[in-house]
Write a structure and sequence with these properties.
The complex is a heterodimer of chains A (396) and B (182).
Chain A: H1 5-8, H2 23-46, H3 54-70, H4 73-79, H5 85-90, H6 97-130, H7 135-142, H8 151-184, H9 197-223, H10 230-261, H11 264-274, H12 278-296, H13 298-302, H14 308-334, H15 360-380
Helix pairs in contact in A: 2-3, 2-4, 2-8, 2-9, 2-14, 2-15, 3-6, 3-9, 3-15, 6-7, 6-8, 8-9, 9-10, 9-14, 10-12, 10-14, 12-14
Chain B: H1 4-31, H2 46-51, H3 60-64, H4 68-74, H5 84-88, H6 92-103, E1 113-114, E2 126-127, H7 131-138, H8 153-160
Parallel strand pairs in B: 1-2
The chains are: A mainly alpha (396), B mainly alpha (182).
């Protein structure tokens, strides 16, 4: 098949005429990725003892939980009849990839929930004693009625947090690797069907998690007039740069592979990239979101040039760009993969709408939900690390 | 030495998770039908429910039982392979009324309606000479078998000198519906 055939004789199979997966399916891996990425940052402190990340270790794990609580929301909106979601949980088919996600997601959320509970138990117990009025009862319920922490209990909790963090690393990797697998295993679509897809999704997930955490940290410090920890920001910048290098490398490796092999699908993918996805792929994903942060991040990550405020600004700008890159990548995969026919001879459009259940407005609300939850969680739990001298034995 | 006091919170957590699991199991038990999974990953009695639904599709033989002339018109033409329902609707009510009319001469059959232009129409029985119906099969698209009668409609009408190329019924200037000649 030749490239010009795309224009001279377009042919769309009837089942290709309308992209079935909407912007909600773009957001679903976006949020899930941040869940896994934020958790990875917390494990850098709790498992790998990167002391520089202590200021964001608790924030990371709570952010991950809040994002995780909203991860399935876009799927529920996309289902149109949300009660159908119960079928995949109540009667999972062993041959269903999505049913597998249900188990992995449930297991990861359980690990995360227990991890958060143990991590914040000292604070919960302390507030169950000291909180005013009805809040005391809220904390009593959160403490499951156990209102004392013996030194031995604190030691056991510390070991359990370590163990759960260790278990959480592969769980988080599997969680988001599996989201990549859901796309990579669709053999009829050459833009998706690659064994690299889980790895591409995983690395971009870690990137987005670090980026969102970095932005949250900088924003929260600014809003509470706190000076961000310079070493922490530097460490986050390094992590972000390192994982961005990996993410961009894997994304290019996959594209290069398809381009070099030049099998029949390449002609439609090339056309897709230079026409339909020119802005979202070449401009946003490659240049603005990929190349630019790769150039900016070494400044705060590896140098001491200019002021700390300038380097922080560099980190913040790079984090925003990286979030744009990952969002563009999700868009290009999910929507881009549906814009060409399986005949490889024609394209369709994805109509972006503002209103409606799967419109941009609904997407913005879904993206805001985890942040609202986080705001609530921060009212309830202390996300900043306790002073070392008042440390109850559980590693902050 | 670890005492119960040191692990009391873990027992509480375990009990809480067990209670959640138990509630989940009870809910699942209520949600899943008894015959789910007996014959595969679905409710076994769904097969009987589906089989009990009235069939929408009529075999062409049902139509030909009354419309013998149409059967002869179509015999041996390329349109013999096209199902009656494609151009005339499912005709479920029409056939039911026709069967009742066969036993009760006082029942008269209402005439067929005009096609409303919707390929998902709810009209029970219709006739159509709208070229959209013809082009639903005969508009040339890539991937059709080489010997399939396909046309670029504008070019075809120009070549054949159609007197009213914009008219809906323009195909019928030269072609029949049942007998497609020429």
């Amino acid at each position: 098949m030749e490239y010009h055939a795309l224009h001279d004789a377009p042919f769309i199979f009837p089942n290709d005429a309308h992209p079935a997966w909407s912007i909600m399916i773009v957001i679903y891996p976006y949020i899930t990725g941040m869940v896994a990425g934020a958790f990875v940052v917390s494990t850098m402190y709790h498992v790998f003892h990167r002391e520089a990340l202590r200021p964001v270790a608790r924030l990371a794990v709570v952010t991950s939980l809040c994002l995780g609580a909203c991860a399935t929301l876009p799927l529920l909106l996309h289902l149109h009849q949300p009660l159908r979601a119960l079928n995949v949980v109540a009667t999972p088919s062993p041959s269903s990839a999505m049913a597998g996600f249900g188990f992995i997601y449930s297991f990861y959320m359980l690990v995360l929930l227990v991890d958060v509970w143990l991590l914040f138990r000292p604070a919960i117990v302390e507030r169950a004693h000291s909180a005013p009025g009805p809040w005391k009862n809220v904390y009593r319920v959160l403490a499951l009625g156990v209102l004392e922490i013996t030194p031995r209990a604190a030691e056991i909790d510390r070991k359990l947090i370590h163990a759960l963090s260790v278990i959480g690393i592969p769980a988080a990797c599997i969680l988001h690797g599996y989201v990549g697998f859901l796309f990579g295993a669709i053999k009829a679509n050459p833009w998706w069907s690659t064994a690299l897809m889980p790895v591409i999704f995983l690395t971009s997930a870690v990137v987005s998690g670090i980026a969102v955490l970095t932005l949250l940290y900088l924003f929260l410090c600014r809003s509470s007039r706190m000076e961000p920890d310079e070493e922490c920001v530097r460490s986050l910048s390094r992590l972000l740069w390192m994982f961005l290098v990996l993410a961009v490398t894997f994304e290019f490796a996959d594209l290069l592979h398809v381009a070099y092999e030049r099998e029949e699908e390449w002609y439609v993918i090339r056309e897709l990239l230079v026409t339909k996805l020119r802005f979202s792929y070449l401009t946003l994903q490659v240049l603005v979101g990929g190349l630019l942060p790769l150039l900016i991040l070494p400044i705060p990550a590896f140098t001491g040039v200019a002021s700390a405020a300038f380097r922080r600004a560099c980190t913040g700008v790079a984090a925003v760009l990286v979030l744009v890159q990952v969002a563009a990548m999700r868009w290009n995969v999910v929507v881009g993969g549906q814009l060409f026919s399986k005949s490889f001879r024609g394209f369709v459009d994805y109509p972006v709408t503002w209103l409606g259940r799967e419109g941009l407005l609904a997407a913005a609300v879904v993206l805001a939900m985890p942040m609202l939850l986080l705001w609530g969680a921060m009212k309830l739990l202390p996300v900043w690390p306790p002073n070392p001298e008042s440390d109850s034995g559980v590693k902050a | 030495m670890t005492s119960f006091n040191d692990t009391r919170h873990l027992w509480a957590l375990g009990a809480f998770l067990a209670a959640v699991g138990l509630v989940g199991m009870v809910v699942r038990r209520e949600l899943v039908p008894d015959d789910f999974g007996r014959t595969g990953p679905y409710r076994a009695s769904a097969l009987d429910d589906i089989a009990a639904r009235p069939s929408l599709f009529q075999a062409d033989a049902t139509c030909h039982a009354c419309h013998e002339s149409v059967e002869h018109e179509r015999a041996g033409t390329l349109h013999e392979a096209v199902r009656c329902a494609h151009c005339h609707g499912h005709a479920v009510e029409h056939v039911a009324t026709a069967r009742r009319a066969a036993e009760d001469p006082s029942i008269t059959l209402p005439p067929a309606a005009e096609w409303d232009g919707d390929f998902f129409t709810k009209v029970d029985l219709y006739v159509t000479k709208d070229r959209a119906t013809c082009l639903s099969c005969h508009a040339a698209v890539v991937g059709m078998p080489a010997d399939f009668k396909k046309i670029d409609v504008a070019l075809h009408l120009e070549e054949q000198g159609a007197s009213e190329p914009l008219a809906k019924e323009t195909c019928f200037e030269c072609h029949g519906g049942h007998d497609t000649a020429p």
